[in-house]
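Researcher: Batch entry, complex prediction.
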Amino acid sequence: METKLPSTWEKALDSIRTWARVNSPWVIHFNSGSCNGCDIEILATLTPRYDLERFGVKLQGSPRHADVLICTGPVTRNARDRLVRIYNQMPDPKFVVVVGSCGLSGGVFHGSYNVMGGVDEVIPVDAYVPGCPPRPEAIIHGVVALLDSLKKKP
Amino acid sequence: MNNIFPLIALLIFPGGLFLMASGLVYEWVDRKLIARYQNRVGPRWFQPLADVVKLLAKEEIIPTGVSRGLFVALPVIGMAGALTAALYVPIAGFAPSFSFAGDLVVTLYLLSMMTLCLGLAGANTTDRFSLIGATRTLTQLFSYEAPFLLALLGPAIVAGTWNIAEINNFAGQNIWLVVTQLMGFLVALVGLLGKLEMPPFDAPEAETEIVSGALTEYSGRGLALFRLGKDVELVVGLTLVASFYLGGIANPLEFLLKTLGLLIVMAGMQSLFARLRIDQTVGLWWRIGALLALVQLLVLIVVRVLR
Ligand code: SF4
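Model: Structure tokens for the complex:
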């Protein structure tokens, strides 16, 4: 049974929800076959030097707690099932950020017999951060761009 | 008119809304202090609020293999326990809304309800991380609970009453009990850290080993309620320790100064010490904590008998 609220109320509630979502992105980090270069950069991003807690970013261990899946590497055929499972375990609304050239297109592994070639072959992706590996600043920029795009949605 | 005031006490002040708001503020202070100790900028002031609202707006997944009723009810029960406990302590320096002889024991039990719910919530799911987390949560409960209780008994024995409001008054009229009962104070403060599963006692939710312990399977609403309940418990626990050991709480200003002072010390301890293994936690509490609290009690009783 759905109760219908007046549209002004709907709008106000929506803006509160968006505000909370934009200001508290909890991330989970998954390596689907990268060379580990990108993962080291992601960890560097989360260190006190860049201090992402000032934007509300928090690294979570459990997919159930996370909003943003940060994914690296070309998806190997082995990691494919795990990636899909982790994606399905996250509660809605959820977003995916791909970090590194490998995740974009397969990168140096492009065309290999054992990779799917890019994360978007497997799960829907919301933001791409190119680079091999991207700098922490670039990763932050990618996440901020994703959050900005959330704000603009009606 | 007569039934309006209890309703206000339950829903707005000091229960309900006020308590949740102050819980969120205290969580922010705690996180900010730790960030500053680590030379970071730290979260913005509305961070805990944004976290909770976001979690409430998210989908709640009920995993297969759990008892649905328990899964949904446990966060509510835990939160209700923490909120009810607040009615018996002098929040913000005002007299407790409800009080009777012996409410100290009831308050302590209500505060433990949160931990019990956490343990049950973990044991309810079929996930191995939650199960280990639940075992650790309950093990930790058995280790800190007795020393914590003994530490709060000290002031009760000196004041000769089990009523929180009367102990608070007694503490306000006499020399600060932290001077005469230093050991009890230390045990109570560290016990609070254990109760809230803060570092160095965060083995039950050690994210590097067991993802996030008993709460691994919780998402959305359940997680938000558990977080909120913990924040409320932080405020209640701080108020309790401050009113017993730091010379009572008589007005809002004292409340703010004393609880925030305690929080600064607690945040310092959190960033100073590394996480203890669960067996080290138990060992610490039963070898040192319980012993200190017992010695304290013995001295108190002997002094009382001699006088
Ligand atoms: S983009 Fe470069 S650093 Fe990142 S996983 Fe691929 S090869 Fe490694």
